[in-house]
Each structure stands twice: as structure tokens, then as C-alpha cells.
Write a structure and sequence with these properties.
Blueprint lengths: L1 H8 L1 H6 L5 H51 L7
Length: 79
């Protein structure tokens, strides 16, 4: 029991429990908001680029197939 009281009254323990002022809380929150914004922005950019890349590949292969079909047809002649 006495050992517990000594630990609770230790000066280092009091500094850990020191309450932050309103300005300190604001600065901590603004840093967190900035990090969350950057992470969310990077996620959106990565997802967008992935979707564009996949869509572009599919459209490109479809166009190549169409051009091959049209160019191999004997009915079409290029003058």
C-alpha cells in the first residue's frame, strides 16, 4: 500500500498526467487533420490511377481487336 502511494506521488508521474492547454490540443489536432488529409488524398489518387490504368488497358485491347477485324476483312479496301 505504501509503495503505491510513493509511485503515485513521484514527480515524473505528475508530469505525465499534466493536462494540455487549449493551444496544445489545437496544434495536436491540426497535425492529425493534416496527416489524415494527406493519407486520404493519396488513397484517392492511387485508386483513381489504378482505375484509369485498368480501364485504359481494356479499351486499348478492344480497339486493337476491332482494327484487326476491320483490316483483315476482304470487303474493306483502303485507297
Amino acid at each position: 500500500m505504501k509503495l503505491t502511494k510513493i509511485i503515485l506521488l513521484h514527480p515524473l508521474h505528475r508530469t505525465r498526467q499534466k493536462k494540455l492547454s487549449k493551444n496544445d490540443k489545437k496544434q495536436n489536432n491540426s497535425g492529425q487533420v493534416l496527416i489524415e488529409f494527406v493519407m486520404l488524398l493519396s488513397l484517392v489518387v492511387i485508386l483513381s490511377l489504378t482505375v484509369l490504368r485498368v480501364t485504359n488497358d481494356r479499351i486499348a485491347t478492344m480497339w486493337v481487336r476491332m482494327v484487326k477485324i476491320v483490316s483483315e476483312s476482304e470487303k474493306v479496301s483502303i485507297r
